[in-house]
Design a protein that fits this description.
The chain has 255 residues and is of the alpha/beta class. It contains seven helices and ten strands. GO terms for molecular function: precorrin-6A synthase (deacetylating) activity.
Length: 255
């Protein structure tokens, strides 16, 4: 594989609050020749607007250019992993096309990553598909896990106890893991906690963390779960999209 003509920086920008951007991230933005911003349709315009707001704050006086692209949609039919792989190929192709269309050609390109590029984000996997492959630099950001725990003022784990970070799909298919006291659940579009026996479980849930309209619920799963389901559906209907995450913790250790 030949070497790309540009370097790529993946910059974590937190979960919706422009103040989450680190000094390191801001410096990387100003150092870039080109920042490319995904558009996800009118119903998710907030996500592009936040990136534009961050750029407006950080890039004043800098020579960094901005280019936007329409994010391809994933085919939800058929095999899940095959669909994700095809989707990543399509995104890599759009990245390549967007950079190639810039004039003059950029030497340093940056993407602003919601949350952190290393945690349940596919940007690194997509970047690995670029051909030729660029030199990749990762600037970490605040994760949704950090934002959730901070919003609820709780520790991520109990003393000496393990935590499992998983997806809604796996929680629904496999249940609460026997070897973890706390489960952090991401990418759950169907409230998989409803599949669990709620006895002895606490939940801390958050949506739009760090953004205007942040939503928080916490308490015994049996009591709070139905409230989360209703509030989540209403919020998604009103805004057209939702990003949420939650922790579930045993109040009594499994025998």
């Amino acid at each position: 594989m030949s070497e790309a003509s540009f370097d790529l920086a993946l910059i974590g920008i937190g979960t919706g609050n422009p103040d989450h951007l680190t000094f390191q991230g801001a410096a990387a933005m100003r150092d870039a020749d080109l920042i490319i911003i995904p558009r996800k349709g009118e119903d998710k315009a907030d996500l592009a607007d936040l990136r534009r707001e961050i750029c407006a704050r950080v890039l004043e006086g800098a020579e960094t250019r901005i280019a936007e692209f329409d994010l391809p949609k994933r085919d939800a039919d058929g095999d899940y992993l095959a669909g994700v792989s095809d989707w990543h190929d399509a995104i890599a192709a759009v990245w390549t096309e967007t950079v190639a269309s810039a004039d003059p050609a950029p030497k340093k390109v940056a993407l602003l990553i919601w949350g952190d590029p290393s945690l349940y984000d596919s940007s690194l996997r997509i970047a690995a598909r670029l051909d030729p492959r660029p030199s990749i630099r990762v600037i970490p950001g605040i994760t949704a896990l950090q934002a959730l725990c901070a919003a609820h003022a709780i520790p991520f784990n109990d003393v000496g106890a393990p935590v499992l970070v998983t997806t809604g799909r796996r929680l629904r298919e496999r249940g609460f893991p026997a070897d973890a006291d706390t489960v952090a659940v991401m990418l759950d579009g169907a409230c998989a906690f409803q599949s669990l026996d709620p006895e002895g479980l606490m939940i801390w849930w958050g949506a739009y963390l760090g953004m205007d309209g942040e939503m928080l619920f916490s308490g015994p799963l049996a009591e709070v779960g139905p409230k989360i389901v209703a509030a989540r559906a209403e919020a998604r209907e009103q805004r057209g999209w939702i990003m949420d995450i939650y922790l579930i913790r045993r109040t009594v250790r499994a025998a």
